[in-house]
Write a structure and sequence with these properties.
Low-confidence stretches of chain B: none
Largest sheet of chain A: 6 strands, mixed
Helix content of chain B: 25-40%
Mean pLDDT of chain A: 73
Low-confidence stretches of chain A: 1-33
Helix content of chain A: 25-40%
Number of helices of chain B: 17
Oligomer: heterodimer
Structural class of chain A: alpha/beta
Strand content of chain A: 25-35%
């Protein structure tokens, strides 16, 4: 079995979201990691971030605040696989939910408050090392 | 490397090496990044010297490995703190009760060992979440429902041994009472099965709870006498139909007969679903509507209504009552629901109305009438846990809303049990309201309603906020402990609490000079003489950490 090692990626998403998105996309091109951006459709900042990431080829999943279906249909399987990286912008409560669930798979969470609002810019990372 | 208190680093390193040999290095965690995952996200002491932290974490995937770990821990005196999934936010999360313990993370033990449709039960390991069990049942098309809390992200077993509750029928929504049979690793590594499971090759382990002789299951809940590695649960047969209705009554004094009548109807199994009492006139929603209020905000009130609410004492003024009667806004509104064949539940609803008509001015409304099953998506148009559907919807609240103007950084649940009477609701509001105002605590500042998770008692479940300010958190911690004491002086106690409050809560259960706790300690000394399992959980400390109190 592969040994799991979980790498910290400290990402400052507090400013210049497109630049942050570019940085994330660059990381996403490094196989076998694939960047996946979650868009909380209730918030323009989250959608803008998703648009910027999408333009650079990131995979986008949308939700309206309730993560249940996304968890059931996508995230649970993806996180079980133990690889990938993910980013987005959401509320503190939404982030709490995501980070706790990801922690269950020892994905490493990083978050920053955005400057413009009470929203949280976040990233989740896991890597596999042989 | 962090080490448990009183353990030499060299011994701890040796113990960790032995743990690694059992479970593999990849499931032995000691880095800060990994241990961060075992902090309580809602800790009021986050970053403070008193924060409860793990020294390491181990994630075995089988009962046999748990046994081996326990034997190693016994040899070195290493304190272990087992968790199922650690999702009990507001009640302590994954953080140990004794700082420096090694968290025994059982999430990888996530096998659903059996789901039996004919006899409506399941046997699961600690890492099985409500989502896992729900998905397993749906994928196989079994005609069974689970009963889940809200949110439904936690462990079925963990929630039950923490004595959590849900939202369907009374016999299922008390999760500990709905269990049938346990497998337990004792502190010396011995393996025990309770109930009929004590018979080799038992055929009724999940069908008959008590077996023969003393019934021990209770001592493995909210305790530190063993690690539950398998647990059976009775499941609800998928009902044919669902009916939800309201009973509204106009006067303040109607609360007492409203509750008494509900008690009769639920204890007689005429009302079969989760009862939910709201007060539209006092602008307090039923539990099942709180999520909606979080999402969209509460209904707006007329200025006259708002002014009258400000003047009401203990939820009452004659002017407010008159206003309610004039405008048709009920003082109290009971939400009831029914599961079963439509012809049965229609008859139950008729009988319900007949009983409540004894209250002058009672009015009745049918809210939802559904033929079951419904699709998962349809359940979200209602309060999905009442349909046995787990969700994460509780986290969908926006950054701010009119109902939640100042989102906090977490909360500590204050959850006293009170008698299931109308008088007790008012008395608890008086007692806790006065104390909370005196202590400057943000609870009971307006009239507050309890919930009906259990069929014979009410429970208040109120969130004390956790902030980013240490001084404010300290103020709330002190106030919380004082409220526990105030409740105790009136004969009320918490049903469950976070480790930081477990001493205060257990001190309330003090009949005959703490006879209950003294027995807990006698058991602890006999079953776990080295005190390796969850020291301090629910204030049960091993002798060497007890300090001669009591």
């Amino acid at each position: 079995m592969l040994r799991r090692d979980f790498m910290l990626k400290s990402l400052s998403l507090a400013s210049a979201l497109p630049a942050a998105a570019q940085a994330l996309i660059r990381m996403g091109t490094e196989p076998p990691l694939v960047l996946h951006v979650l868009v909380d459709t209730r918030f323009a900042a989250s959608q803008h971030f998703g648009d910027a990431a999408s333009a650079r080829g990131a995979r986008i999943s949308c939700y309206d605040g309730d993560l249940t279906q996304l968890w059931q249909r996508t995230l649970q399987q993806q996180w079980r696989s133990g690889r990938g990286q993910m980013a987005g912008i959401t509320t503190a409560r939404g982030w709490l939910c995501l980070s706790q669930l990801a922690g269950g798979y020892h994905w490493i969470a990083r978050a920053r408050h955005t400057e413009a609002s009470e929203l949280i810019a976040w990233s989740l990372t896991a890597e596999l090392r042989a | 490397m962090k080490t448990p208190p009183g353990i030499r680093e060299a011994d701890f390193r040796r113990a960790m090496s032995e743990f690694e040999r059992v479970i593999g290095a990849e499931w032995t965690f000691s880095s800060d990044a990994d241990l961060d995952l075992y902090r309580d996200a809602y800790s009021p002491l986050k970053g403070q010297p008193g924060e409860l932290l793990a020294a390491a974490a181990l994630a075995p995937d089988s009962t046999e490995k748990v046994q081996q770990i326990v034997r190693i821990a016994n040899r070195y005196g290493i304190p272990l703190y087992p968790i199922s999934t650690g999702r009990n936010l507001g009640y302590g999360g994954a953080a140990p009760a004794y700082s420096g313990s090694v968290v025994l993370d059982l999430k990888r033990m996530n096998r659903i060992l059996e789901v039996n449709e004919r006899n409506a039960y399941a046997l699961v390991e600690p890492g099985v979440s409500y989502f896992d069990l729900y998905n397993h049942i749906r994928e196989r098309g079994l005609k069974l429902w689970i009963d889940c809390p809200d949110p439904g992200w936690g462990s079925v077993l963990g929630n039950a041994i923490d004595r959590g509750g849900g939202y369907t029928m009374a016999q299922y929504r008390n999760h500990f009472d709905a269990h049938c049979g346990m497998e337990v690793v004792l502190p010396d590594g011995e393996l025990l099965r309770t109930g009929m499971g004590a018979i080799p090759n038992a055929t009724t382990w999940q069908q008959y709870k008590s077996g023969c002789g003393p019934l021990l299951d209770g001592i493995f809940s909210q305790s530190n006498f063993g690690i539950v590695t398998k647990m059976g649960f009775w499941l609800m047969p998928e009902p044919e139909a669902y009916l939800r209705c309201t009973i509204s009554v106009p006067r303040y004094q109607d609360l007492t007969p409203l509750v008494d009548t509900l008690n009769y109807l639920e204890n007689a199994r005429i009302v079969t679903g989760f009862p939910d009492i709201a007060t539209p006139l006092l602008a307090y929603p039923p539990v099942g509507q709180v999520q909606l209020w979080n999402e969209t905000g509460p209904p707006s009130l007329a200025p006259e209504h708002q002014a009258l609410l400000r003047e009401a004492k203990l939820g009452y003024s004659s002017q407010l009552e008159a206003y309610g009667m004039r405008t048709g806004i009920p003082y109290w509104q009971l939400w009831v629901s029914y599961y079963g064949p439509m012809e049965v539940i229609e008859a139950q609803w008729q009988a319900t109305q007949r009983h409540f008509r004894r209250i002058e001015g009672a009015s009745f409304r049918e809210v939802d009438r559904l033929q079951l099953p419904i699709e998962t998506d349809q359940a979200f148009a209602h309060h999905e846990p009442e349909f046995g559907v787990p969700s994460l919807r509780a986290f969908s609240i926006g950054a701010r809303s009119p109902w939640n103007p100042t989102p906090s950084h977490g909360h500590m649940w204050f959850s006293p049990i009170i008698p299931r009477t109308g008088e007790a609701i008012i008395e608890a509001n008086r007692v806790f309201g006065e104390a909370a105002r005196e202590l400057d605590m943000p609870l009971f500042q307006s009239f507050t309603m309890p919930a009906c998770f259990w069929e014979r008692a009410f429970i208040f479940i109120l969130a004390t906020p956790v902030t980013e300010d240490a001084a404010t958190n300290k103020h709330y911690l002190d106030g919380f402990r004082k409220l526990i004491e105030v409740g105790g002086s009136h004969g009320w106690g918490e049903y469950r609490t976070a480790p930081v409050f477990q001493k205060a809560v257990m001190d309330v259960y003090s009949f005959n000079n703490h006879a209950l706790m003294r027995l807990h300690e006698t058991l602890k000394d006999a079953i776990d003489p080295k005190g390796i399992l969850s020291p301090g959980r629910y204030d049960i400390w091993p002798k060497h950490l007890r300090g001669g109190r009591r």
